[in-house]
Specification:
Homodimer. This protein is an alpha/beta fold and about 260 residues long. It has two domains: about 140 residues, Rossmann fold; about 100 residues, Rossmann fold (3-Layer(aba) Sandwich), CATH 3.40.50. The chain has eleven helices and eight strands. It has a four-stranded parallel β-sheet. It has a four-stranded parallel β-sheet with strand order 6-5-7-8, with helices on both faces. The radius of gyration is 17 Å and the shape is globular.
Length: about 260
C-alpha cells in the first residue's frame, strides 16, 4: 500500500482589519512544527474593522466576530482563533468563555462545528499550563487598556507583579515595534519573583523572533499571546503542542497538556 499522506488542518483566524502579525506568527510557529511532525496546515482569515485600539472600536469590532465565525465555518476550518486579546478582555471579566461558546455555537449552527480559541483565553490557559501564578508583562496598549489586561489576569488568579504599557495608539504602529527591543524592556521589569514573563500581551505586537533570547536573558519561561494561541489551537486539534523556536511552552514539555475546555 502507498504511504498515507499526512493530514492537512485548516486554521481559521478572526483578525482585526489592521492586524498584520497573527497571520505571520501563527503560520511561522506551525510551519516550524511541520519540520518535525507529519501534519500540515493551511491558513484562512476573516477580518473585523479596527484601526485604533480604543474601547469604542474594540466593542464595535467584537460585535462583528459572529459574522467572521460564519464565514470561516463556510470554509470548514478545523479550529477557529479569535486573534485580538484586548478586545475580549475589554468586554468584561471572564468574557473569553462567553465568546468561545458563542462563536462555537455559530460554527455548529452553520453545519461545521469547530473548537474556538480566543487569544485572551489562550494566554490565561497557557500561563496556567506553565504553573505561572505570578508574571511580569509587556503590553503595547495605552495605560487604561493595559490595566484592563492586568485586572483580567488577576481575576483569573494570575498575579501580575510588574508591567509596562508602551502606549502605542495606532495598531499598525504596534505591528512595527521592533521585537528585538522586547528582551531589554522585559529585563527592566521587576521579574525576579515571577514564574514567567509575558513578552507580548498583544497578538499585534510581534515577539516570536525574541522569545528564546528573552528566555535566556531572564532565566525563566517567556510566552506571548500568539504562542499561547498556537499552543491551544494544537491542543484543540488533539495534536501535540510542540514547535521549535517558540519558547518553553511549545518545547514539548507541555505537548499533551489538557486543552482549555478540560477546566470547564
Amino acid at each position: 500500500m502507498p504511504p498515507t499522506a499526512p493530514r492537512t488542518y485548516r486554521i481559521g483566524q478572526i483578525v482585526p482589519s489592521s492586524n498584520v502579525t497573527m497571520e505571520t506568527e501563527i503560520p511561522a510557529i506551525l510551519r516550524a512544527r511541520e519540520r518535525i511532525a507529519p501534519e500540515r496546515f493551511t491558513f484562512h482569515s476573516s477580518r473585523m474593522r479596527m484601526t485604533h485600539v480604543t474601547p469604542e472600536q474594540l466593542k464595535a469590532m467584537d460585535a462583528d466576530s459572529d459574522r467572521c465565525a460564519d464565514e470561516l465555518s463556510d470554509a470548514h476550518v478545523d479550529v477557529l482563533g479569535y486573534a485580538c486579546l484586548v478586545a475580549i478582555m475589554s468586554m468584561g471579566l471572564g468574557y473569553h468563555r462567553e465568546s468561545e461558546a458563542r462563536l462555537h455555537a455559530r460554527t455548529a449552527a452553520n453545519g461545521a462545528p469547530a473548537p474556538v480559541v480566543t487569544s485572551a483565553g489562550a494566554l490565561v490557559h497557557g500561563l496556567r499550563t506553565l504553573g505561572a501564578a505570578k508574571v511580569a508583562l509587556v503590553a503595547p496598549y495605552m495605560m487604561p487598556l493595559t490595566r484592563t489586561v492586568v485586572d483580567y489576569l488577576r481575576h483569573e488568579g494570575i498575579d501580575v507583579l510588574d508591567f509596562t504599557a508602551l502606549e502605542i495608539p495606532g495598531n499598525l504602529d504596534v505591528a512595527a515595534h521592533d521585537p528585538l527591543r522586547l528582551p531589554g524592556i522585559a529585563a527592566s521589569l521587576d521579574h525576579a519573583d515571577a514564574d514567567a514573563v509575558v513578552l507580548s500581551a498583544c497578538v499585534q505586537m510581534p515577539s516570536l523572533a525574541a522569545v528564546e533570547e528573552a528566555e535566556q536573558k531572564l532565566g525563566k519561561p517567556v510566552v506571548s499571546a500568539a504562542i499561547c494561541t498556537a499552543h491551544q489551537m494544537l491542543r484543540a486539534l488533539d495534536l501535540p503542542a510542540v514547535a521549535p523556536g517558540a519558547g518553553h511552552l511549545l518545547s514539548g514539555v507541555y505537548a499533551d497538556s489538557p486543552p482549555a475546555g478540560a477546566e470547564r
